[in-house]
Design brief:
Helix 2 runs parallel beside helix 8. The protein has one domain. Helices cover about 70% and strands about 5% of the residues. The chain is mostly helical. The strands form three sheets. A two-stranded antiparallel sheet has the order 1-2. The protein has a two-stranded antiparallel sheet with strand order 3-4. The radius of gyration is 24 Å and the shape is globular. Its main location: membrane. It is found in: Cell inner membrane; Cell membrane.
Length: about 475
C-alpha cells in the first residue's frame, strides 16, 4: 500500500502529524500555568474568592493538558531513533545535551511541584502553595526555552564544528543556545502561548456568559482574557515583524516562499495577498498584490530590491504552496485576534463588555484560533526550512533511517488511530470540564444585595464584577 510513497515523505508526515497533536498541549500548558499563577497571586493579594474559584476550575484542566502533552511528547522522541537515526547520529552531540537539559531543569521542576499545586493548598499553606504554582509556571517557560533553543539551532546553526565522522560537535555552547534566531522565536512562541490560552479562557467565559452560568466567575475570566488579547496581540504582531526581518537575514529562501516571490524584484517587490503558487512553472498564478509593499515591510524602503526563487536551484527550494498559504493563515488569524481584542476594548469603554452577546459568540468561535495560528506558524517555519534539517548543512534526505516505506506507513496508520482515540478522548474530556463551570455560591446578579456589594449589572442585567 505504501510502496508508491517515499519513506522520507511518510516519515516527515508522521513527525508533522505527531508534533501537530503534541504542540497543542504544551502551548496551552505554558499559558495556563502562568494564568494559574496570576489567579492565585490575585487571590492572595485581594482576598477575593472568585480568583481562587477560577484557580480551582482551571487547575484540573491544566493537569489533563499537561498529562497529554507529556505522553504525546514521548512519542516524538522515539521517532528520532526509528525514523531519523542518521540525523540523531550526526546532530546528537549538539541537540542531545540541550534536550537533556530540558528534562533536568524544566520537566523535573514541573513534575516535582505539580502535585503540590494540584492537591497541597490545605496541606502546605498559602505561601508554599503559591511558590509551587510559580515553579510549575517557571518550569513550562524553561521547557519552552530549551526546546526552542534546539529548534532555533537547526534553523540558524552556529557554534559547532564537524569531527572526522561528519558529526556536528559543540565548540561554543553560548553560540549554540543563543543562536541568531533564538531570541525572536522564544518571544514569538511564548506570546503565542499566552494568546492561545487567553482565547480559550475568553471563549469559555463567553460561553458561560451566554448561558448565564456563574456570571461573576465567567465574567471575570472573560474580562481578564480580553485584556490579554487587547494588549498582547499588537505586541505579537510587532514581534512577528522582527522575527520576519531576522528570517530574511538568515533564511532568505524561506521568506521568498512565504511571499510567493518566484521572480527577483530589483526595484521593489509587491506584497501578494492572494495567488496560487505554481512551483513547476516557477510562477504565482492569479496573483493579487500591492506594488512594492513587501520591500517596504522587509527593507523599510519601497524601492529596495528583493531576490526571488529564480536565484535558488529548484532542489534547494521548499514546497512553496504550503509555506505561502500557512503563512497567510497565521497572519489572518493573528489579525482576527487583534480585532477581537480591540472590539472588547470598545465594549469595555462603553460598559457593554458583559452584555454584548455578539462579542461573546465571536469569542466562543475564536477560542481555538490560537491553536490554528500556532500550527500554521509551525508549518511555515518547518516546511520553509526544507530541504534541510540543519539549515544549510544537512539535508532531510540524508537524515533518514535505513527504513522502508511500508514500515513507516504502518506506524503512521497506528499513530493516527491511537492519537485520534486517546487524545480525542482527552480533548473531549477537557471540553466537558470547561462546560461545567459551577454556579456562583452567591445569589445571581440582579438581586438587591449584590448591587450593594460593588457589582454593577450591565445593560443586559447580567454583568459581573470586572476583573
Amino acid at each position: 500500500m505504501f510502496d508508491a510513497l517515499n519513506a522520507e515523505v511518510l516519515a516527515r508526515f508522521q513527525f508533522a502529524f505527531t508534533v501537530s497533536f503534541h504542540i497543542i498541549f504544551p502551548v496551552f500548558s505554558i499559558g495556563l500555568a502562568s494564568y494559574l499563577a496570576v489567579l492565585e497571586g490575585l487571590w492572595l493579594w485581594k482576598k477575593d474568592t472568585v480568583y481562587l474559584e477560577l484557580f480551582n476550575f482551571w487547575k484540573t484542566i491544566f493537569a489533563v493538558a499537561f498529562a497529554m502533552g507529556v505522553v504525546s511528547g514521548i512519542v516524538m522522541s522515539y521517532q528520532f531513533g526509528t525514523n531519523w537515526s542518521a540525523f540523531s547520529d550526526k546532530a546528537g552531540p549538539v541537540i542531545g545535551p540541550l534536550m537533556g537539559y530540558e528534562v533536568l531543569t524544566a520537566f523535573f521542576l514541573e513534575a516535582g511541584f505539580l502535585g503540590v499545586m494540584l492537591f497541597g493548598l490545605r496541606r502546605v499553606g498559602e505561601g508554599l502553595h503559591f511558590f509551587a504554582t510559580l515553579m510549575v509556571a517557571a518550569g513550562t517557560l524553561i521547557s519552552a526555552t530549551w526546546i526552542l533553543a534546539v529548534n532555533s539551532w537547526m534553523q540558524t546553526p552556529t557554534g559547532f564544528a564537524f569531527n572526522d565522522a561528519g558529526q556536528f560537535v559543540p565548540v561554543d555552547w553560548w553560540q549554540i543556545i543563543f543562536n541568531p534566531s533564538f531570541p525572536y522565536r522564544l518571544v514569538h512562541m511564548v506570546i503565542a502561548a499566552y494568546l492561545t490560552t487567553a482565547f480559550v479562557v475568553g471563549g469559555v467565559g463567553a460561553w458561560h456568559l451566554l448561558r448565564g452560568t456563574a456570571p461573576r466567575r465567567s465574567g471575570r475570566m472573560f474580562s481578564m482574557a480580553m485584556w490579554m488579547a487587547a494588549i498582547v496581540a499588537p505586541i505579537q504582531i510587532a514581534a512577528g515583524d522582527l522575527h520576519g526581518l531576522n528570517t530574511l537575514e538568515h533564511q532568505p529562501v524561506k521568506i521568498m516562499a512565504m511571499e510567493g516571490h518566484f521572480d527577483s524584484h530589483p526595484e521593489g517587490a509587491p506584497l501578494y495577498l492572494f495567488g496560487l503558487p505554481n512551483q513547476r512553472e516557477q510562477r504565482l498564478d492569479y496573483a493579487i498584490g500591492i506594488p512594492k509593499v513587501s520591500s517596504l515591510i522587509l527593507k523599510h524602503d519601497l524601492n529596495a530590491p528583493l531576490a526571488g526563487l529564480d536565484t535558488v536551484p529548484r532542489d534547494r527550494q521548499p514546497p512553496v504552496a504550503i509555506v505561502f498559504w500557512s503563512f497567510r493563515v497565521m497572519l489572518l488569524v493573528g489579525f482576527l485576534m487583534l480585532g477581537v481584542g480591540l472590539w472588547s476594548l470598545w465594549n469595555r469603554y462603553r460598559g457593554t463588555l458583559y452584555g454584548n452577546s455578539a462579542l461573546h459568540r465571536v469569542a466562543v468561535l475564536m477560542s481555538p484560533a490560537g491553536f490554528v495560528a500556532v500550527i500554521a506558524g509551525w508549518v511555515t517555519t518547518e516546511v520553509g526550512r526544507q530541504p534541510f534539517t540543519v539549515y544549510g548543512h544537512m539535508l532531510t534526505a540524508d537524515s533518514l533511517s535505513p527504513i522502508g516505506a511500508p514500515a513507516v506507513g504502518a506506524s503512521l496508520v497506528a499513530f493516527i488511530i491511537v492519537y485520534f482515540l486517546v487524545f480525542g478522548a482527552g480533548t473531549f474530556y477537557m471540553l466537558r470540564l470547561m462546560a461545567r463551570l459551577p454556579h456562583d455560591p452567591t445569589p445571581e446578579l440582579g438581586e438587591g444585595p449584590i448591587r450593594t456589594s460593588g457589582v454593577t449589572p450591565g445593560p443586559a442585567g447580567n454583568a459581573p464584577q470586572g476583573g
